[in-house]
Amino acid sequence: MVKIKSVYAKASREDGRRILVDLFWPEGLKTCEAGVDDWLSELGPSYDLQRFHYDTSNWETYRSMYEKEVLGTAEKKKLLENISEQSKNDVVTLLYGSRDVRYNHASILKGLIEK
Q: What is the pLDDT of residues 10-48, one digit of tens each?
């Protein structure tokens, strides 16, 4: 099972393996407080795409651009496949640094993994 959660939300046992999927470490968060098992910065949106995302009225365009960015390289596709395989037997929680529960790239990754 794949879940998504803000890295700022308190960690719980139900999270299973906690994977941060942001390009940059979340601002103001100490590593000891984050409860992150892995940090796959490669799956975070590029800097330019992050800046584009600030305007959530472009969400569908952002989604399309981010999917192309992630699926455009063999390395990133392999990371998604690995997460997908692990999620068949264990809970995997994708952590994002945004405080926006609806418009975040982890929700897009979750959809790609579950396809």
A: 999 999 999 999 999 998 999 888 999 999 999 999 988
* pTM (two decimals): 0.92
What gap in Å lies between CA 68 and CA 105, rounded to an integer?
A: 13
> What letter represents residue 11's amino acid?
A
Q: Angle, nearest 10°, between helix axes 105-114 and 59-71?
A: 50
Domain extent at residue 92: 2-114
Tokens of 52: 């584009």
* Cα–Cα distance measured from residue 93 to residue 2, given in angstroms and rounded to the nearest whole number: 6
Type of residue numbered 41 = S
Count: domains in the chain: 1
Distance of CA 49 to the CA centre of its chain: 14
CA 73 to chain centre: 16
